Amino acid sequence: MIAGNVEEQRSMLSFLAFIGTSIIVIVTPGPDTATTIRSTLLAGRTGGICTAAGIALGQTVWALATSVGLAALLVASAPLFLTIKYLGAAYLIYLGIYALYEALWPPEQGSGIAVENHSHSRVSPWIAFRQGLISDLSNPKMAVFFTSLLPQFAPMGGSTFATLLALGIVFAVMTFLWLAFYAAAIHKVRGALQRPTVRRLVEGVTGIVLIALGLRIATEQR
After folding, report:
1. How far apart are the first and last CA of the chain?
2. Could you tell me the pTM of the whole model?
3. Which InterPro entries did the record assign (predicted)?
């Protein structure tokens, strides 16, 4: 009985440590944050939440791949890892260039309302969701992250598959909640950010950040 209680306490402490580590990782700005911000600016809170949902689904896929060992094979395969790495970097750079293009050459000149309506027509909820999903699935660093993080907090004994998948899903849910909150916060000030000059500035800064993140992913070592 005592041994069982000790094991339960260890499992609880390990889970709490996982939650704490996950919070630090999730709130640290990165490609997911930048993509969510841009979707929110273009399509409002719904767009940002849809992007967050796509990112969370991508993380769930990575968690499943980690649970069955596929993510470890990806990390071990240099050609496959580099292929996904460069595809992911290219996608972020593409989004960044597109944002810069719209900052320098806005699609519509006129009132803020016209620009806002045009933005909604360009980014549907499905497109926002797809951008989040592709952005996360095309980032091989997620494979490295999940294969290195999740096993550290998996308790001894029990089903390793179920445990790793459960931890990955918890991480994905936490990510979704944080990014959805982020989208709601950005949406609150979206009216001011939709002013033509401010919007172009934010679009330009977001584009530069996305390009920088893409270049960093492409050039950094494992």
Report:
1. 45
2. 0.78
3. LeuE-type (IPR001123)
Q: Do the beta carbons of residue 142 and residue 81 sit within 8 Å?
A: no
Residue ranges of E strands in the chain: none
For tokens 């409002």, the residue is 44
| DSSP codes, 158-191 | S-HHHHHHHHHHHHHHHHHHHHHHHHHHHHHTHH
pLDDT digits (tens, 9 = 90+) for 153-211: 776 554 578 888 899 999 999 999 999 998 999 888 877 666 777 777 877 888 888 88
Decide if 143 contacts 74 (C-beta within 8 A). yes
Residue 26 to residue 45: CA distance in whole angstroms:
19
Distance CA 187, CA 207 (A): 19
* Angle between the N-to-C axes of helices 31-67 and 160-188, in degrees from 0 to 180, rounded to the nearest 10: 170
- 52, with CB counted inside 10 A (0-12, 13-18, 19+), is buried
- Among the residue ranges 23-27, 71-75, 78-82, the one predicted with the least confidence is 71-75
Task: Find tokens 């996950």 and name the residue.
Answer: 22
